[in-house]
Amino acid sequence: MTCEGTSDDLIGEALLIGVVEDQVKNATTEVDISSLSLPKPKPITNSQDQRLVEQLADTIRVIGDRLDQDQRFNDMIDGLVCVADKSSFWKLVEKVFCNEQITWGRIIVLFYSVGKLSVKMVLAHLPAVFTDILNLSLDFFRRKLLQWICNMGGWTAALTLDLRKHSGPTPADDMAPQTITDCGNFTRDLKQRGFCACPLFLQTLGP
Length: 207
Known about the structure:
Largest sheet: none
CATH topology: Apoptosis Regulator Bcl-x
Number of helices: 10
Distance between the termini: 48 Å
Number of domains: 1
Helix content: 55-70%
Shape: globular
Number of strands: 0
């Protein structure tokens, strides 16, 4: 891939790892983050790129807070927790991008969802699954999303859309919980595939 090793690659890697680390730290103080084998992103020496990572992370937090308020989104995440098989996980993740359509909104949703799903795996004491999810997500970013991001003008283009403030028929609509859940039909697909109806992390934690 021509974009691997570029600033857009480094920014995406740092952003995804940072989102996961931030959500795990905020969710629990009982887990030592260093025990999770969280990969270290390659250093970003350009101050403008560092600032861009911070701005993108802030955007994801704002949008994530909005998504957290919708039960459909939370049900979708709980359904994903049932999936431990790598091939099934890939199929479910790729459902975020219906008809192979990539948008900034769906990329933001994927990054936030990976963080939220990772938290649930940590709380369920499943460090190996946590590691698998993050590694698969980084690979998915490079294989499926990085070239598109480069073609769109890089991560800076995402900020020019000001996704946090958009309303109506805009790219931000891709982040609406109904759009995401209806598009992927996660819960229905999980039940049809025979996965657990009760979230795995709840089963693991017990009463």
